Amino acid sequence: MLLETADHDYYAFAEGQETSALYAGAHMVSSLTQAHGMIRMHALSVEESAVFIGKVADEL
Q: What angle do CA 21, 2, 7 make, to 5 degrees?
C-alpha cells in the first residue's frame, strides 16, 4: 500500500503472511513505488480479468 499524507509525506506499507512493515525512508518507498508501478502496468483491466476468470471457470 502506498500512502501520501496531506503534507505530501510518502509512506509504503507492506504485509506478508507473518509480518508487516511501514516504510518512510525515501529509498525504500521509491523502490516499492516502482515495483507497484510495474505490477499495475502488467495487470489485466477489470474487463480482461472478468473474461480470464470466466475462461478458467469454464475449464474446471
A: 105
